[in-house]
Amino acid sequence: MKKVLFATTALIATASMAAADVRLSGYGRFGMGYTSGTDVVGGSGGYPSNGNAKNLNGVSKTYIVSRMRLQFDVSTETDSGVALGARMRIEADNGPGNVQEIGLLSAPRFFATVGGFTLGVGNIIGALEGTPGLYLETRAAGAGLDGMQFVSAVTNVNNEYFNWDYFDSDGMGFNGVEALYSAGGFAGHISYSSSNGNLATPAPITSGALANTAGAVGRERTAINVSYTWNDWTAAVAYQDSNYRFEDKTLVTLAGQLGQFGLRLAYADNDGVDKFGLYGNMDIGAASNVVVWATDEGAVSAAQVVAGRNDNRDSVVASNKQEGTSYGINYSYDLGGGASFEAGAQRASHGNTQVQAGAVFSF
Fold it and tell me: DSSP string covering 44-83, please?
């Protein structure tokens, strides 16, 4: 099912540049959500959310899901044919627990493009994040309206979610540099970022999931992905190396189309915690699409728990219970004009059930 993004474009001519392109685009979404939250009350809690219950944490199980995003893209082209530009976003959210983020502005991502090569600087996309086949084939890139914390992604395990570089739509992001290249069916992406850490706490981090084996506060990540597309299929491999413990990752994906059916397989080794994913989607008529998925998360080793890693093992009373199978479904109906009705449900491996439904519109 085709999704159309409408953009407002303004062309500005100046004496120093042939033409500049300024584009404003974005989307809005709003609806309702539910989280069960009563199956898991022990352990380390965290991410994905164990849910809400007024008798446990005073927060309602139902909540409003909403987001308004404005995206600003600016670019110009030099006399030699090099495109220079930048992207920024403003975003406001409401999600589980009625947690709000109001009007936050992202740091910019700058880029230079010539032919099939692009250099990115600043709030980078990140090579692992940019791997084809990582996310669900939905408008949210996950289940429901807001992705439901993206339990469906094989790189999210053991309360260590999004421990890789990505474009931060409402913050400073991971300051870095990246290079992207594509030619024919081949595409490649390499990225590097360096963080000075939290300057308010300059002491070395020596324990926990963010502990640095080198004893320094700053985090450094290097990632690469390569992919190849032939006919209706795309295969991709990605790797991330980090000087913070438990952030090394290997990702493999394969996605393709069989008539009106889509199929995707994904696997990630998250520094010793395996996670497999199986995904399928199908068009129903001219306006509807259904996505179904299931993942299986392996257990962390006892040695890593002793070393300070989160514990996801079902057999341990005080763990986060994220070992095991998660599954979900998403339904989308195209309303035309860049709008759609979205509904999704998922059951996470630690026992929390989430349901969301509402409208999404692009402009």
Answer: T--SS-----TTTTS--SEEEEEEEEEEEEEEEE-TTS-E
* Pairwise CA distance, residues 16 & 167, whole Å: 30
Q: How many CB atoms lie within 10 A of CB 212?
A: 19
Torsion angles phi and psi, residue 149, rounded to 5: 65, 10
Domain locations in the chain as residue ranges: 8-362
DSSP notation for 185-197: TEEEEEEEEEE--
Cα dist. 34→30, 195, 264, 321, 358 in Å? 14, 36, 28, 20, 12
The pLDDT tens digits for 319-355 are 989 999 999 999 999 999 999 999 999 999 988 899 9
Q: Is 202 exposed, middle or buried (0-12, 13-18, 19+ CB in 10 A)?
A: exposed
| Domain topology for 8-362 | Porin (2.40.160)
Determine the 3-state secondary structure of 326 from DSSP: strand
By C-alpha distance, which of 143, 86, 83 is closest to 114? 83
Using CA atoms, how far apart are residues 33 and 241, in angstroms rounded to an integer? 36
CB 71 within 8 A of CB 32: no
Are 143 and 344 spatial neighbours (Cβ–Cβ below 8 Å)?
yes
Parallel/antiparallel/unpaired status of strands 273-284 and 288-297: antiparallel
Q: How confident is the model at residue 145 (pLDDT cuts 50, 70, 90)?
A: very high
Give the DSSP H/E element, type plus range, for residue 328: strand 324-336
User: By three-state DSSP, how is residue 292 classified?
Assistant: strand
133 dihedral zone (left: phi>0; alpha: psi -120 to 50; beta): left
pLDDT at residue number 360: 99
Which residues sit opposite 326 in a β-bridge? 295
pTM for this entry: 0.87
Q: What is the dihedral of CA 168, 172, 177, 181, to 10 degrees?
A: 20
For residue 33, give the nearest of 123, 204, 149 by alpha carbon: 149
Contact 74, 21 (CB under 8 A): yes
Contact 5, 28 (CB under 8 A): no
Q: H-helix or E-strand containing 302?
A: helix 302-306
